[in-house]
């Protein structure tokens, strides 16, 4: 049974160096975690898109991203990208290793799917949607992840919410 663990709505209340987090929601169903965020960024959509598609330098987005490499450009809009992310909640840390097929659908939409045979996740999918908002960008990010490794029940989605909120704000900055 799918259950909602945490929803944080902060619309128009917290601003952090050019980023305003409107909402973050973390849910899980068994071992599958879903993250949904809505954030405003004080940069135009073209600039945000350029950062999100600079696959060799995704480490600039977040300190949690330890490695990012463009492995192969499959066509003008599709790439194989390797990303290692270090995720920690309290004392529990894991490195998530993913080879992803990333498709740049439009200048507003990017989708990625993890290749399980080349990753330590059973399933991974993400999408980024960018919309102009004044002189900045409204970014909606959806991420679903089912790791191949065990996550202690006490860590779960409830404790991940706080860590993810901080990471989303830091990434948006």
Main traits of this protein?
single chain; 173 residues; mainly beta; ten-stranded antiparallel sheet; 2 helices
Brief write-up:
The chain is mostly beta strands. About 15% of the residues lie in helices and about 55% in strands.
Structural summary, described in words:
- The chain is mainly beta.
- Strands 1, 2, 3, 4, 5, 6, 7, 8, 9 and 10 form a 10-stranded antiparallel β-sheet that branches.
- The N terminus is likely disordered.
What radius of gyration results from the CA coordinates? 16 Å
Q: Strand fraction band?
A: over 45%
Number of strands: 10
Mean pLDDT: 82
Q: Alpha-carbon distance between the termini?
A: 35 Å
Which percent range fits the helix content?
10-25%
> Number of DSSP helices?
2
Assembly form of the protein: single chain
Describe the sheet with the most strands: 10 strands, antiparallel
SSE series:
EEEEHEEEEEEH
Report low-confidence residues grouped into runs of 5 or more.
Answer: 1-16
Secondary-structure content class:
mainly beta
* Gross geometry: globular
